[in-house]
Amino acid sequence: MTDMTERNRTDSPDTEKEPQQTRKPARRGGGDPATRGRTTIADGVVEKIAGLAARDVVGVHTMGSGLSRTFGAVRDRVPGGSTKSVTRGVKAEVGELQTALDLEIVVDYGVSISDVAHAVRENVIAAVERMTGLEVVEVNIAVSDVKLPEEEEEESETRLQ
Question: What is the DSSP string of 44-76?
Answer without folding.
Answer: HHHHHHHHHHHHTSTTEEEES-HHHHHHHHHHH
